[in-house]
Every structure is written in C-alpha cells, then in structure tokens.
Amino acid sequence: MSNNIFAIILAGGSGSRLWPLSRELHPKQLMQFTDDYTLFQSAFIRLVNNVDDKNIITATNAKHDSQVRYQLEALQKKFFRQSSYRVITEPLVKNTAPAVALGIKYIEKINKCEDEPIIIVTPSDHFIPEPEKFAKIVEQALKLAQENYIVTFGVKPSKPDTGYGYIRAKKNKKLRDISEKALKVDFFSEKPDEESVREYCESGKYYWNSGIFVFKASVMLAELKKYAPEIYDIIHNAEITSQIPTIPYLEYDKMPDISLDYAVMEYSKKLAMLPMDCEWHDLGSWEAIYDISEKDENGNSVQGNVIDLDSKDSMIYSTSKLVTTIGLKDMVVVETEDAFLVCEKSRAQDVKKVFNLLKEKNDSTHLVHKTVYRPWGYYTVLTEGDGFLTKCIQVNPGGKLSLQLHHHRSEHWVVLEGNALVIHNDEEHYMSPGDSIDIGIEETHSLQNPYDEPIKILEVQRGEILDENDIVRLKDIYGRV
Predict the structure, then answer these.
(1) Can you tell me the distance from the alpha carbon of 247 to that of 234, in angstroms, rounded to the nearest whole number?
(2) Nearest to 258 by CA among 122, 59, 93
(3) Orientation angle between helical segments 229-237 and 96-110, nearest 10 degrees
(4) Exposure check for the chain: N or C terminus, fewer CB within 10 A?
(5) pTM of the model as a whole
(6) By the 8 A CB rule, do 384 and 52 touch?
(7) Whole-number average pLDDT of the chain
C-alpha cells in the first residue's frame, strides 16, 4: 500500500432528505442503518482496503466535530491505532468544492512521501455491501489518476431520478490501455431536470454520478484554478499547517457554496469514468433506505413498534410510539419522538423542502431530536415549560461531561440508575440511585462515569435561558473548550 495514497471522507452534510430521523446536529452519516457501524464508520472501513488508515482524513464541520471524533476513537481501537485519526473541521458549511480544496491543501502539508499525493474523495452516506469488489475498482482508478485523469465512478440508472448527476461516456483506446473498463467522459450534467433525466435513462447511454472521485492533488488544484478561481485563490493563500487543518472563519466565509460537481466536473476535460461493477446505494432518501431494507411478503419494510393491516410496498418506521397503518400503498411513514413524516415513496426527494421550511421558520425539529447524542452518551428532553426543563441523561462507561457552569440556570440532579461521580465546586460526590444534588447558577460542575455500567440522571433545569448556549465549558476531554 503506497504512502502517497490518501482519502478524504466528506462527512459534513445535514442529511435533510432523511428528516425526521436525520437532523442538522445528528445527521444520517452518524447513524446506523445496516450493520454495527454508522454510515461514516463503514466508509472509513471500506477505504482501508486501498489506503493506509492513517492517511484517511475526515472533512466535517464544527457542529459534528465531537461526534465524528468519538466515532473515530472506536475505529482506532478496531485497527489498534495509537495516534488519533486526522479530522479537518470546516468553520461553516460551504458544500463539497471548498471542503475538497481544503483537504487537498492539508494533504500536501502532511505528505511525507516523495511521490505526489493521489486522493480518493468519497461521501460518507453510501451503502456498498461488496467492499472487496469496490476495492478492485478503486485500484483501477488509482492507475488512471496516476496518468493525470480525474476519475469518477458511474452507476447504471435503475430509474429516472433527479437527485443524481448524469454522465455520458464513450470508449477510448488510450484509457483502455490503462484500465480495460475505463471510459472517457464527454458529458457531465449535475442534477438535470425531469424531462432530461427521462431522456437520459431511455437512451441507455448515461450513468449516475456516484460522487466518488480519484485524482492527483496537482491535477485537481489546476482544474480549480481554471474553473473555480475564487476557491483556488483562498486555498492557495491559506496558512494551513499539520497542527491547524483549517482556515479562519472570515476567510472560509468568502468561499462560494458550491459542489465539486458544479465547480469542476461539469467543465473538466480530464474526466475518466469506471463503471461501478458492484452493488451501490446512495442513502439520500427514504426511498433509498426502503430499497436496501428487508421486506415482508407484502413488500413492506417495517421497523419498530408497528401494527399494519393490508399495506403493500411501503416503509413504516417507528422509533418510540406505536404506529398503526391500514391499506397503504407505496408510502413512507416515519415516526420520531417529536415529528411524523407521511409521504408517497415517489415524493421522498421532497422531504428536503420540508426540512428547509422548518429551518426558515426557525423550528428546532430541523436541528435536533428530543434525544441528543454526545461523545459521553445522550440526553432526552422529557418536558419543558415557562422557566423549566427536564432531561433524562445517560452517561456511558468512561464518559465525562465537561467541567462547566451556567450564567442563567440552576440544575437539580437525581441519580436514577448506576453510580455517578459528580464534581461540584472542586468537591467530589459519589452518588447512588436515589441520591440528589443541587447545582446553583455559576457553580462549576461535571457529571462523570468511572464505572463499567451506564448511569442515568434526571436533570431539572430552572432559569431564564434553558438552552445549550448557556454552557460555559472550562475543561473537556473531547476538545470542545
């Protein structure tokens, strides 16, 4: 495995089309859908077949940084890696072109090999159940990239879908001499309209763009300079070091909000394509989740606390409440603690419109669940009202909440399960089920679990401001200070 092969996992999206399960602060790539790993972790494991794990860089944003690092820690244990994996944190969300440019600049800084870096860029929300076949395709892509091509992976469309970019490719002897199945890209259209999509699919000459790319660092930078100079100039002049893999907020804010597909791929003359000769799914919608899910004799995918009568070809997903359905056909029903989604399966792409409407209205259901995951465990909001809020907090074994204080609220903690260590104004309190403690305004405190079993705490907050903005972190093992 060559030391000049790197990978960038794009893990900063909000997963808006999988609302209400996916939220801005806990998006789909950080969730489990198919096995014991999250989509993000599966993407990392898949890349290890072609890339040394220490050369895999995750690009995410500040909102997801702590969760990404927590999931990477679990992978470090799997691969017996002692040092931390590398994470690039974007100061704000600016789509894939700025993220990739930032990643290339960082890789150039950390590359210790004499050979120029070759980089694999992949989203973090794909389901590829045949990783060995995928690895062989990547091997061919690396050969093409070595010859200065930007390689994309094409998927034969199973149906007209406006959610994908479309590629038309043709045979090319020069490319075939490098890799037998390689094709030359002569047309690239990112997310065309419905009429064009139907025409493309009927012709049989087009492929979906998988969003996976392989290229030399210098080749992509040259294309960015040519087709997206506003991105190139900022990255070229940025002071990025191996210790500080980001650029200042005000500089990054000047970046255009544009995907790599729109910025470069629609214009580049250096594109080669390899057919994706393995099973591949972009889990970008509830219809896609339905496609990969196990189904009953009526074609229904049913998960959770569900009672169904006479429905067909539908997805019914419950996270907590009892959901009952009768006589549905080609529908999606998703229940979470604070929201319901009901739509025709064919309209699953439009869920993003609902997400955006909620965001415009400043409705918190686009942002966060009633249950919020943290590196140390999670909490669930039970009730809230004028001047009060109650939570149930679970801290996993070894987990520690930051040492913190609040300017606007007091808290009362009651231990429900397990044994807890509470740091309160520099004093240690070892607490058992039934024990309680009061935390006053501006008093320092931390809830910790040094034991082998999870602990659960009932927290009652009282005050003028009862949100996460009133947390002043003084010390934190997860680097959030």
Answers:
(1) 9
(2) 93
(3) 30
(4) N
(5) 0.83
(6) no
(7) 92
